[in-house]
């Protein structure tokens, strides 16, 4: 997951080298999400039938191919190809890796398995911009060297996946061909609010991982890649902290309260855009990230507990389809609005829409609380 966000603080350097606009940045980012969604829709249930390890290894191969595209890029075609391959890799990994971690966890760790999976996801996504931002500041050729580091990390992960046991015993119980992802009726009462809260939270992550450097340079007046990488890392670090808090808050309260905290974060980000304040932007990033993490882990936990074991990867993948639609389409909208209305106004409209969705989810959950129970139909 680290490799999927490495380009975030480098977009400014690519813009200088290739001469494209902020709107093109959002398109490059969006094709990554398209790759994720395609992989989830067509192959999200694949590991339920062929096994976790083959799918994880295929995801790592695609990740390495993406890094090679960036390593030898000479223009926009390689950037688009690299992002599509990165998206396909993440699409194979998200639902499969979450299911694998839950299944591999010893019984005494069962309560923490989902946290480990989601924290690895968010931690990897946050580490990418921090690593790339620091390298962009301090190494002579960051557009190449950062992807050499990425290839080394992928190689280590490949060895790690080879060493883990396979958790799918019956590999012939379901069709191996692509099929439409389905959410069983018993899962839907948990799936709908989890998807709504996740949409609001992941739309925020999409904003920070695509146009945050542009906000910093054009609105706040800070163009340092290390700073932009650190700000994006702060969002994901706060998300991980929010996930850790869920154990204390409890699943029932974590989903609505995560949405409340996300609304507060959006208010701070709006204030930062109005006043051009770096402090408020960082505070908003930390607050929104914490709210996203709190509601994200609660949603994944509720959906996982209600899902039948033989369909856990499929249902988890269906949830991630919603989340990656959230991470892409709103960001493209911000890019379009930035061209016509300006980046500041686009950010304010986006923040208002996210806050409205999070507030609506909170009201829905308070009116119709979701009972948490074990998996099965």
From TrEMBL:
It comes from the Bacteria. The chain crosses the membrane at residues 20-43, 55-74, 80-102, 114-139, 145-165, 186-208, 228-247, 254-272, 278-296, 317-341, 347-367. Residues 1-370 form the Major facilitator superfamily (MFS) profile domain. GO terms for cellular component: plasma membrane. Keywords: Cell membrane, Membrane, Transmembrane, Transmembrane helix, Transport. InterPro entries: MFS, MFS_dom, MFS_trans_sf, MFS_Transporters, Sugar_transporter_CS. It is found in: Cell membrane. It is a multi-pass membrane protein. GO terms for molecular function: transmembrane transporter activity. This is MFS transporter. It comes from Streptomyces triculaminicus. PANTHER family: MAJOR FACILITATOR SUPERFAMILY MFS_1, RESISTANCE PROTEIN MDTM, PUTATIVE-RELATED-RELATED. The keyword Membrane applies.
């Amino acid at each position: 997951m680290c490799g999927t966000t490495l380009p975030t603080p480098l977009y400014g350097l690519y813009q200088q080298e290739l001469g494209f606009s902020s709107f093109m940045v959002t398109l490059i980012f969006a094709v990554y999400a398209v790759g994720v969604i395609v992989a989830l829709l067509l192959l999200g249930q694949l590991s339920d039938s062929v096994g976790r390890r083959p799918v994880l290894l295929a995801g790592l191969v695609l990740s390495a191919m993406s890094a090679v595209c960036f390593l030898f890029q000479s223009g926009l075609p390689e950037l688009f190809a690299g992002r599509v391959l990165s998206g396909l890799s993440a699409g194979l990994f998200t639902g499969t890796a979450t299911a694998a971690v839950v299944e591999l966890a010893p019984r005494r760790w069962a309560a923490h398995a989902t946290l480990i999976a989601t924290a690895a996801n968010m931690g990897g996504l946050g580490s990418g911009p921090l690593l790339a931002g620091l390298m962009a500041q301090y190494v002579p050729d960051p557009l190449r060297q950062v992807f050499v580091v990425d290839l080394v990390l992928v190689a280590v992960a490949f060895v790690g996946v080879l060493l883990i046991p396979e958790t799918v015993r019956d590999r012939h119980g379901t069709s191996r061909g692509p099929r439409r992802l389905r959410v069983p009726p018993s899962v839907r009462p948990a799936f709908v609010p989890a998807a709504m809260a996740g949409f609001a939270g992941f739309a925020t992550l999409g904003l920070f991982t695509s146009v945050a450097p542009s906000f910093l340079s054009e609105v706040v007046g800070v163009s340092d890649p290390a700073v932009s990488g650190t700000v994006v890392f702060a969002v994901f670090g706060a998300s991980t902290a929010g996930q850790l808090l869920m154990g204390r808050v409890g699943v029932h309260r974590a989903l609505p309260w995560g949405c409340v905290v996300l609304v507060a974060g959006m208010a701070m980000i709006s204030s930062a855009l109005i006043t051009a304040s770096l402090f408020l932007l960082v505070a908003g990033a930390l607050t929104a990230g914490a709210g996203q993490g709190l509601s994200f882990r609660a949603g994944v936990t509720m959906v996982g507990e209600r899902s039948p074991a033989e369909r856990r990867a499929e249902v988890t993948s269906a949830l991630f389809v919603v989340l990656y639609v959230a991470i892409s389409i709103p960001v493209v909208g911000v890019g379009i609005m930035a061209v016509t209305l300006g980046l500041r106004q686009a950010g304010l409209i986006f923040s208002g829409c996210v806050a409205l969705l999070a507030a609506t989810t909170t009201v829905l959950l308070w009116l119709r609380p979701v009972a948490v129970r074990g998996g099965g139909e």
